[in-house]
Amino acid sequence: MRHFLTIILTICFGASYGQDFAYPSIKSAGQSITDFVPAGWTILDSAYGDLSKDGIKDAAIVLQSKDSFSLLNSLEDTVMTQPRILLVLFKEPADNSFVLIEQSNSFILKHDNSAMGDPYQALAINNGKLEVKFHLFNNMGSWYVTNAVYKFRVQQQGQFVLIGADKSSFHRATHDFEHYSYNFLTKKRALTKGNDEKGTKKTTWKSLNISELKTLNTFNEPFTWEVETDIYL
Description:
It contains one helix and 16 strands. By secondary structure, it is mainly β. It has one domain.
């Protein structure tokens, strides 16, 4: 009986805890990246490189809550998970401080599906681009492995615009693969299909009908944008 009551109390506490969750306020400036970490949060990942084209290394960091909360996942199931935040910081040459330029509370996927590994893989800053990498690996229910890289760059008005993306899927049993490579500035897509075991591949090109570029503010969550019919990026 005592064990049963403990389970019930745990469930009730978790549900109410999730309902009270709110993303914390982030400081607008600081001397180091640790100054941007709110109480109860920690740095999950970070990357350094020049994003503002001034020759000085800026920073991007992923924050993760130390506590778990009861939240809805992408499947509309209520799960216990640790929320994440993406911050982009520019380095100020005058005093070597960092300034908060961009924040997304939704773009970094959470580990909220027990049938999958952690979807978040890494941050990188290369040639003035912020790259966010994801890896979808199902422990059960699917033979496919999916990798995706989203590439953002500062454009007009200081917005981080999605200028390109790569998405690859691989079937672990058949060794068939597909690789989509998108350039949203030229509005072109290359699709390479093949089989690793047979050593075959073929690439085709397509023009994209995209009227407006997505940004970190308008691209809410990876793998939710139907960029082509039945193709989600």
